[in-house]
Specification:
This protein is of the alpha+beta class. It contains 16 helices and 16 strands. The longest helix is centred in the first third of the chain and has 18 residues.
């Protein structure tokens, strides 16, 4: 037997139906704000992620699937969605379309890391990007879109953890002080953070190791180093969140893990989820497109890990959005099967799910299958029903059964 590759999995029914419903709600929510879907390739040139995410990040150094194609070109399976969107902006007609650009994506990403609950080597992300606006109003819209989407899935007690990581001007002096602070405490850092100390001290603030947490809490705050423009942008973003009645909390250690972030960075948490309360994150990236060789086009976006999102969906959402069979049509004998097809087709045109029992093993087996599928109703069609132009309908939950004229039934279901 050949198993699936480690870190990958098959998404099978009925769970796949919940995935589809979640994505449908994402599409409906984003579209209502004017966001349109972009589909980028799974394969990209390795250089794209080296230049955007950062060569010294764990994603690039340890987690990417990298290989040479038959012509010796260095390629990578995409580990995240924002850099490919930025690349698509530069290499397609997107750059000539009306700005700002509102885009969203849904699809698989790949990172070579230890598989665990909610984390896979092939995982899925739902994300959105707003390109072409630098003002705080763009930050406000992006955060509102995100909160509305999560609320539409049934999540409650949502809160945004937010910070500003400033710009290059702000970070210049801040990084010097931050490095000095951590160098004096280097012996207390985890091994990964000791390496980050020389390459990018800011990333220490994104460390999840327990031994580094007390040091992070007492580290200098970038808020004391923000330039006037970045400080004003952050303050106006917070005021806008207040006007939108979106709960937030400033987290001075929030930096996110990728090099392209500037100014606003955020995570969304739900207090009802307990200790593992983070749902997603994102931020602003004003230099990403210019760093890739394009014009100075600012952007802001977020990404949600769909695998974990599905695992923590509220029970009410799953209950209401699980696959349901409205009508299970049972021919008493094979002679009535074609007539069942005709009735099932009419039912589907009304917008209901209808399945015809095809095994030809009699009424008892048909009712058993209807029960296994948790069908709401069974429709029993035998020779007598065809002759009289009627249907025998059985409510599976109660066992109540009635016979009605076909036309009356079809006109009555809406």
């Amino acid at each position: 037997m050949i198993n699936s590759v480690k870190g990958t999995r098959d998404i099978i029914p009925p769970f796949s139906y919940i995935w589809n419903r979640t994505e449908e709600i994402a599409i409906k929510t984003f579209s209502s704000y004017g966001y349109l879907e972009i589909r980028t390739p799974i394969l990209e040139h390795l250089e794209l992620f080296q230049r955007s995410i950062g060569e010294d990040t764990e994603i690039v150094n340890k987690e990417m699937y990298v290989f040479k194609d038959r012509k010796g070109r260095d390629l990578a399976l995409r580990p995240e969605g924002t850099a490919p969107v930025a690349r698509a902006y530069l290499s397609t007609e997107l750059k000539n379309q009306l700005h700002p650009l509102r885009l969203f994506y849904i699809g698989p990403m790949f990172r070579y890391e230890r598989p665990q609950k909610g984390r896979y080597r092939q995982f899925y992300q739902i994300g959105a990007e707003l390109l072409g606006l630098e003002n705080p109003e763009a930050d406000g819209e992006m955060l509102e879109v995100l909160i509305v989407f999560l609320k539409n899935l049934g999540f409650k007690e949502l809160e945004i953890l937010i910070n500003s990581v400033g710009c290059d001007l702000c970070r210049k002096d801040y990084v010097v002080e931050l490095k000095d602070y951590f160098e004096k405490r280097a012996s207390q850092l985890c091994e990964n953070c000791k390496d980050r100390l020389d390459k990018n001290p800011l990333r220490i603030l994104d460390c999840k190791e327990e031994k580094c947490q007390p040091l992070k809490e007492k580290a200098p705050s970038i808020s004391n180093f923000l330039c006037p423009d970045c400080k004003r942008h952050f303050e106006e973003t917070l005021k806008l969140l207040e006007k939108l009645s979106i709960p937030f909390n400033i987290n001075k250690n929030l930096v996110r893990g990728l090099d392209y972030y500037t100014r606003t960075v955020f995570e969304v948490v739900s207090k009802e989820l307990g200790a593992q309360n983070a749902l997603c994150g994102g931020g602003r990236y004003n230099k990403l497109i210019s760093d890739l060789g394009g014009p100075p086009v600012p952007g802001i976006g977020f990404a949600i890990g769909e695998d974990r999102l599905i695992e923590i969906l509220p029970e009410k959402f799953i209950e209401e959005n699980s696959f349901k069979v409205d009508y299970f049509l049972i021919p008493v004998s094979q002679n009535e099967t074609s007539f069942c097809f005709h009735i099932a087709q009419a039912i589907r045109k009304k917008g209901f799910v209808a399945i015809t029992f095809l095994e030809g093993k009699g009424l008892k087996k048909g009712l058993k299958d209807a029960s296994s599928l948790k069908a709401k109703n069974s429709i029993i069609i035998g020779e007598e029903e065809i002759k009289s132009g009627t249907l025998t309908i059985k409510e599976m939950a109660t066992g109540f059964q009635k016979t009605v004229p076909i036309q009356e039934f079809l006109e009555g279901i809406k």
